[in-house]
Amino acid sequence: MRSMTDAKDLYEHPYPSPELAAEHPFVPYAPAPVATADAAARGSEFHELMDARRSVRMFSDEPVPKALIEQAILTASTAPSGAHKQPWRFVMTDSAAVKSAIREAAEEEERVNYLDNRMNEEWQEALAPLGTDHHKEFLEVAPWIVVLFEERYEQRADGERRKNYYVKESCGIAAGLFIAALHTMGLATLTHTPSPMAFLSKVLGRPENERPFVLFPIGYPLAGTRVPDISRKPLADVAVHVTDLP
Ligand SMILES: Cc1cc2nc3c(=O)[nH]c(=O)nc-3n(C[C@H](O)[C@H](O)[C@H](O)COP(=O)(O)O)c2cc1C
Fold first, then answer.
1. Residue 220 CB coordination number (10 Å)
2. Closest Cα to atom 11, ligand 1: which residue?
3. pLDDT digit string, tens, across residues 77-105
4. Which residue is closest in CA terms to ligand 1's atom 1?
5. What is the CA(133)–ligand 1 centre distance, in A?
6. Domains in the chain, start-ordered, CATH in brackets?
7. Does the predicted TM-score (pTM) go above 0.85?
8. What is the DSSP letter of 23?
9. Burial of residue 170, with CB atoms counted within 10 A of its CB: 0-12 exposed, 13-18 middle, 19 or more buried
10. What is the pLDDT of residues 125-183, one digit of tens each?
């Protein structure tokens, strides 16, 4: 039992209010409890799993069942979203022709980014340790490409437009869950942004209300592949505990 104090002693304004509950449906929420003694171990195990994830740029051509991709999309789609609009579309392809067209267009944009200095000097300096360049062969080798499109607004069948809220934030969270789900299944991906990415709308035949957000090549890492030897910031550099007013 987690609750130590009665709800009525904690909250003057309960959620949902009786008026709200009369107007909209609500259901009980009671996730399986995790004993405090087990929580640290579970948290640490999950951290260890996620800490072992790396972005991969050399994929094997070993096939990946579509069901695994769909499973990851389902998990991504559990993300919270502004006003519960779920403003995302995960567009997947395993077509050699489509992947090839994506590679060609991505390399064209990346050639301008890397070779014609569309990325400024500071940006190129930051990328230097990763050694990325305009070659994107992995876009054809990886068995799947999934492009996450942000739904800028909802286009209803009757022609009406409805606003979406916090679209980028919502898609960012969904992307994180997608990457985590793939990693949990032993799959690898790269968070890839060959910008500008408008070509993806064209190649994948997406409507006007969707804009490409991130491209994910997905597959198994090529045997013997290597990744940059980078480290992650320690807790002290990413966490701040505020104990009083400034
Ligand atoms: C929003 C975003 C865009 C990225 N775009 C690219 C990209 O276009 N090409 C690339 O090779 N890596 C890209 N990355 C991958 C990062 O370089 C990578 O996540 C970072 O170096 C940390 O490595 P790790 O993912 O292995 O922890 C991107 C990552 C993020 C979050």
1. 18
2. 132
3. 999 999 999 999 999 999 999 999 999 99
4. 191
5. 13
6. 62-222 (3.40.109.10)
7. yes
8. H
9. buried
10. 999 999 999 999 999 999 999 999 999 999 999 999 999 999 999 999 999 999 999 99
Q: Whose CA is nearest to atom 30 of ligand 1?
A: 191
State which of 103, 107, 193 you would mutate to test the pocket of ligand 1, scoring each by most atoms of that ligand within 8 A of its C-beta.
Answer: 193
b/e per residue 126-160 (b: at least 16 CB within 10 A): eeeeeebebebebbbbbbbbbbbbbbbeeeeeeee
The token duo for 214 is: 């991130």
Nearest to 145 by CA among 182, 226, 87, 91: 91
* 198 C-alpha to ligand 1 centroid (Å): 19
The helix (H) or strand (E) run that includes residue 168 is: helix 167-184
Dist. CA 65 → ligand 1 center (Å): 25
User: How far is C-alpha 123 from the chain's CA centre?
Assistant: 22
Residue nearest to atom 9 of ligand 1 (CA): 192
Span 47-68, pLDDT tens digits: 999 999 999 999 999 999 999 9
pLDDT number for residue 223: 98
The protein residue with its alpha carbon nearest to ligand 1, atom 31, reads: 191
Q: What is the pLDDT of residue 2?
A: 63
- What does pLDDT average to over the chain? 97
Ramachandran category for residue 175: left, alpha or beta (phi over 0 → left; psi -120 to 50 → alpha): alpha
- Which amino acid, one-letter code, is at 239? A
Q: Using a 6 Å CB cutoff, which residues line ligand 1?
A: 54-55, 57, 130, 132, 190-194, 227
